[in-house]
Automatic annotation (TrEMBL):
Record's catalysed reaction(s): L-aspartate + 2-oxoglutarate = oxaloacetate + L-glutamate
One GO biological process term: amino acid metabolic process
Cited Pfam families: Aminotran_1_2
Full protein name: Aspartate aminotransferase
Alphabetized SUPFAM superfamilies for the sequence: PLP-dependent transferases
Enzyme's top EC category: transferase
Aminotransferase class I/classII large domain location: 29-396
GO molecular function, one term: pyridoxal phosphate binding
Record's subunit section: Homodimer.
Keyword list, A-Z: Aminotransferase, Pyridoxal phosphate, Transferase
Length: 401
C-alpha cells in the first residue's frame, strides 16, 4: 500500500472550489460569480492593452536575460511600488525609512510579512476583520501567529459595525497586529469613511497596535489609485510604523503572474535596512527569489509617464464597469419589486457585493439557476455583465420570495 494511504481527502478551497463546481455544470446559462477576477462585458478575462504593450517592449529588448533576480526582487519595481501606495512625495520614502521586497502577489506578501512578524515581533497576536477573505486566517496561523477577530460587519445594516470595531480594537492587547483592508473590503464591500479611518488610526496609535494593510484592490474601488491609497497614507503620515502588502493581480490584471510587494515602514533608515536584511532570511529558504516577468511588466508601466497614464485609464474603465453593474443589478431588483432593501448593492464598493443571501438561498440559486458564488452570499460584480444581470436578478427574486 502507499505510504500516503492514511490520507483523508481534503475539502476544496471554499473560493476556488466554486469554480471547480462551475466547470462541471453543463448548463449554457451558468454564471460564475465566485472568483474575484475581472471579466469584460462579454464575460471574458481581460489583458490590459498597456500590459500587452509592456510585454512587447520586454520581448524585443535583446539585452534582457533570465538570470536570477535578487532575493528582494527588482529594485525598480520595489521603489515604484512603494511610491504607488505611499504617494510620490512620501516623506517616509524620501527618508529611506521604507523597505520594500517583491513577493508572490498579495498572498505571498502577506505571508512573508507574517513570517517576519512571527520571528521578530514581540506580540504574536493578529486581529483580522469578522468576516474576512477566507485565506487570511490560514496565512497568519500557518506563519505562527495567533489569530483573533474584531467586529467589522453588521448584518442588520449591511454596513460597518463601527462601535464593535472600536470596542474590540480598544480591548486588544498592546502591540497586537491589526490587519486592515486598505480599500474595497473583501467580502463585504464595506469600507470605513475617511472620518472613521481617522478614529481607527488614533485608536491604533494610542494603543501602540501595529497596522498591517492588505492592499489588493488599489484603484479598483473608486477608479482612483490615490483615493484608494488614502487610508494607508493617513497612517504613514503620522510617522508611525506599519506593513503593507500590495497585489497587482486585480489592478493590472496580472493574476497568474503572481506579482506583489511587501513594504515595511519603519521609524528610521537604519531600522529599515536591518528589517530588510532579516526579510532576506525569511525569503531565501521559502522560494529563494521571486519571478522576473510580472515585476518587469509592472516596472515598465510605472516607470513610463505615458504608459502609466494609459494604465490609469484602463483601470478606471474596469472600476466604472463594476460600479455600473451595481446600479444595473439594483435597478433590476427594484423593477421586479423584489422584497427587501437592496441599496447596499450600490453603497458597497469594490469587486464584491455581500448580498445578505444565506447559504440556503445560495444553494437554491445554484441548483435552479446555475449561478455559482461562495456560500456566504458574496457575488463578484466583476463577473456580471448587462446580459447576465436579468438572470441574476430573476434568481435573487426567486430565492427571497
Ligand atoms: N487580499 C485580499 C483581501 C484578496 O481579496 C486577495 C485576492 O482575492 C488577496 C489578498 C491576494 O490575492 P493575490 O495573491 O492573487 O494577489
Amino acid at each position: 500500500p502507499s505510504v500516503f494511504n492514511h490520507l483523508a481527502r481534503a475539502p476544496e478551497d471554499p473560493i476556488l472550489g466554486v469554480t471547480v463546481a462551475f466547470n462541471k455544470d453543463p448548463s449554457p446559462s451558468k454564471l460564475n460569480l465566485g472568483v474575484g477576477a475581472y471579466r469584460t462585458e462579454e464575460g471574458k478575462p481581460l489583458v490590459l492593452n498597456v500590459v500587452r504593450q509592456a510585454e512587447k517592449l520586454l520581448v524585443n529588448d535583446s539585452s534582457r536575460n533570465k538570470e536570477y533576480i535578487p532575493i528582494v526582487g527588482l529594485a525598480d519595481f520595489n521603489k515604484l511600488s512603494a511610491k504607488l501606495i505611499l504617494g510620490a512625495n512620501s516623506p517616509a520614502i524620501q527618508e529611506n525609512r521604507v523597505t520594500t521586497v517583491q513577493c508572490l502577489s498579495g498572498t505571498g506578501s502577506l505571508r512573508v510579512g507574517a513570517e517576519f512578524l512571527a520571528r521578530h515581533y514581540h506580540q504574536r497576536t493578529v486581529y483580522i476583520t469578522q468576516p474576512t477573505w477566507g485565506n487570511h486566517p490560514k496565512v497568519f496561523a500557518l506563519a505562527g501567529l495567533s489569530v483573533k477577530t474584531y467586529r467589522y460587519y453588521d448584518p442588520a445594516t449591511r454596513g460597518l459595525n463601527f462601535q464593535g470595531l472600536l470596542e474590540d480594537l480598544g480591548s486588544a492587547p498592546s502591540g497586537a497586529i491589526v490587519l486592515l483592508h486598505a480599500c474595497a473590503h473583501n467580502p463585504t464591500g464595506v469600507d470605513p469613511t475617511p472620518a472613521q479611518w481617522e478614529q481607527i488610526r488614533q485608536l491604533i496609535r494610542s494603543k501602540g497596535l501595529l497596522p498591517f494593510f492588505d492592499s489588493a484592490y488599489q484603484g479598483f474601488a473608486s477608479g482612483s489609485l490615490d483615493r484608494d491609497a488614502e487610508p494607508v497614507r493617513m497612517f504613514v503620515a503620522d510617522g508611525g510604523e506599519c506593513l503593507v502588502a500590495q497585489s497587482y493581480a486585480k489592478n493590472m490584471g496580472l493574476y497568474g503572474e503572481r506579482v506583489g510587494a511587501l513594504s515595511i515602514v519603519c521609524k528610521t533608515a537604519d531600522v529599515a535596512s536591518r528589517v530588510e536584511s532579516q526579510l532576506k532570511l525569511v525569503i531565501r529558504p521559502m522560494y529563494s527569489s521571486p519571478p522576473i516577468h510580472g515585476a518587469s511588466i509592472v516596472a515598465t508601466i510605472l516607470k513610463d509617464r505615458s504608459m502609466y497614464h494609459q494604465w490609469t485609464i484602463e483601470l478606471k474603465e474596469m472600476a466604472e464597469r463594476i460600479i455600473s453593474m451595481r446600479q444595473q443589478l439594483f435597478n433590476a431588483l427594484k423593477s421586479r419589486g423584489t422584497p427587501g432593501d437592496w441599496s447596499h448593492i450600490i453603497k458597497q464598493i469594490g469587486m464584491f457585493t455581500f448580498t445578505g443571501l444565506n447559504s440556503k438561498q445560495v444553494a437554491f440559486m445554484t441548483k435552479e439557476f446555475h449561478i455559482y458564488m461562495t456560500s456566504d452570499g458574496r457575488i463578484s460584480m466583476a463577473g456580471l455583465s448587462s446580459r447576465t444581470v436579468p438572470h441574476l436578478a430573476d434568481a435573487i427574486h426567486a430565492a427571497v420570495t
